[in-house]
Amino acid sequence: MNIESKLIETVIEAVHDIYDQAPDAKTIQIQKTRKDFEGDFTLVVFPLLRMSKKSPEQTATELGDYLQQNVKEINSYNVIKGFLNLTIDKSFWLDFINSVGNNNSYGFIEADENSRTMMIEYSSPNTNKPLHLGHIRNNLLGYSVAQILKSQGNNVVKVNLVNDRGIHICKSMLAWQKWGDDVTPEKANKKGDHLVGGFYVKFDQEYKKEIKELVDKGSTEDDAKKNAPLILEAQEMLRKWEAKDSEVIALWEKMNSWVLNGFDVTYKELGVDFDKVYFESETYKLGKSLVEEGLEKGVFFKKEDGSVWIDLKDEGLDQKLLLRSDGTSVYMTQDLGTARQRFTDYNANELIYVVGNEQNYHFQVLKIVLSKLGYSWADYLHHLSYGMVELPEGKMKSREGTVVDADDLIEGMVSTAEEMSQELGKLDNYSAEEKKEIVKTIGLGALKYFILKVDPKKTMTFDPKESIDFNGNTGPFIQYTYARIQSLIRKAAEKDIEIPTQVSDQVEVSAKELQLIKFLHTYPEILNEAAKNFSPAIIANYVYDLVKEYNQFYHDHPIFSETDRDKLLFRLFLSIQVSKVINSGMHLLGINVPDRM
Q1: Quick one: 218 and 302 in the same domain?
Q2: pLDDT at residue 367, rounded to an integer
Q3: Domain that holds residue 76
Q4: Number of domains making up the chain
Q5: What is the rounded distance in angstroms from the CA atom of residue 141 to the CA atom of residue 249?
Q6: If you ran DSSP here, which 8-state letter would residue 454 be given?
Q7: How confident is the model at residue 299 (pLDDT cuts 50, 70, 90)?
Q8: In the Cβ-directed half-sphere of 288, how many Cα atoms lie within 13 Å?
Q9: Number of other residues whose CB lies within 10 A of the CB of residue 268
Q10: Is residue 99 situated within a structural domain?
Q11: Buried-most residue among 17, 131, 210, 283 (CB within 10 A)?
Q12: Same-domain status, 467 and 533
C-alpha cells in the first residue's frame, strides 16, 4: 500500500473512531502540500466538518493527533485553517529510495489476465505524398501514448491505417502517367514517397492552370473546378480502380509499393513501429456492406442521384454522405469498415484514434453512425484530437509543396545537432562513428522532446533551432544531465568507489536531497496521470522538472569533494536513481539518452 492510500484509510478510521461516522473514501482529499507550507501531504478537512460538527481547526487538530499516533511514518503535523499538513519521517523516504534502488521497472505495472486491451491507431498516411512535420507529431504522439499505456499494465496493439485509395491517390497516378516518362525511384535516385509526392504537386499545378483557362472563358470557379479535364480523368480512374480495371490496379500497386517502402525508411529513422497495418483498399468494401446494412435497417437513406446519407439533425448535426452517387466510398465508409474489422480482430476494450483536431466532427459522426447500426462497442472509440504543428512562418500545404518533409527535417535536426555540439566542444575526443551516433541521438531527441512536451490538444509552433538548445526545457538539456550522471558513475569506478545498492537509514540527508527523493516518489503518479490523459507532455515536463531539481542539488552538494564517505556514497546512489527515472521517462517518449555527451 502506498503512503497516500494508507493516509486515506487511517483518516476513515479516525472519523469512525472520533466522530462515529463512516465517510466515503471519495470525500477524503489528500494532496501534495503546497511549496509555501511545511509538510508533505495535506488533508482538506472541510468535507468532514458535517461529520465532526466542530470548527475546521479543531477537527484538523483531532485528526492530526490520531494520525500521528496511528501512522508511524508521520513525524509531525501543522494546521492552517481547514488544512492539515502532515510531515513524513525521513526514515520513510530513505526506505522508499532503497526500494527504488532494487526496482528496475519503478512506476510500471505488469499486464495480467485482467488487463484491458487498448488499440491505438496512429500515422495513417496517404500513399500520394511523403510524411511531413504534421505526421511526425502524429507518429510521435501515437507511439509514446502506446508506450505509456503499456507501462500501466494494459495490453496495447499499435495499428496503422494506410489511406491507399481514393481520388487523391488517383491524382498522383494520373500525373505520373501524363508527365512521368516511366520514371522510377531508382532512375530518379529518390525515395519512392518523395517521387510520388512530386507528381501530386504536379497534378495540382496543372489542375490550377486548367481552372484558370475555364474561368477565363467565362466559367464560374466552382464549375471550372468540377469540369476541368484533369479532375474528370482522376474521377474516371477512381471508378476504374473500384471496378478492378487491370491496368489501373497494376499502376496503383506499383506506385503504392514505392511509397510504402519510403515510409518504412522514415518510420525506422523516427523509431516508431506497428503491430498491424490495415489498408483502406481492403477495408472499404466492408464499410460499403455496412452502408447496405444501414439502408436495410432504415438508418440511412438514398437520394435521387443514388448517393447514400444519414440524417443527424436530431443529434444537432447535419446530413452526412456515406456513399457517392457513382457508388464510390468516402472516408466515413471505410472508417466504418475498419472499426468493425478491428473489433473483430482484437476485441479491444478501447480504440484510440490519433488524428488532428480538424477531424473532430468526423469522429463525432463515426461514433453516432456505429451506435445507430447497433454496435455497442462504438462507446469505446476515443478520438485523441491533437493540435496542428505550424512553423514560425505559418501553416503548411502539401498539395502546394510547402510542407516540411519529415526526412528533410530529421536530417536537418541531426545536422544542427552536430553544428551546435561542435561549437560547444561536446564532440571533442570522439571517433567519427561515435560522433555520428551521438549527434543523431541529440538531433532526434531534440525533435521528439520539443513536440511531445506540448499538450497534445494545443496547436504548436515548431522551431528547430530553439528545440536543440542545450539549456532550458529541451531534449538535449535532459540528455546532457543523464550523461553527466553516467560520467559521475564512471569517475567513481576509476576511483575504486563501490556505490552501494542500499543506503543506511542513519545517513544525514539535507533538505535538498530529501526534496529530490520526494520528487522521485511522484513518478508512478505521473505515469498514471499521463496514461489517463493520453498525454506524453505530462511525463516530458516532469522529467524536465526532475532534471532541474537534480542540477540544483548537484550545484549545492559537491560529490567527489565531499569528505564524509557516507554522504558521498548516498549522493552517488541518489544520482543513479535519478538517472534511472530520467531514462525511463525518456524511453516512454521514444527518446534515447546517451551515456556520454
Answers
A1: yes
A2: 95
A3: 3-88
A4: 3
A5: 34
A6: S
A7: very high
A8: 14
A9: 10
A10: no
A11: 131
A12: yes
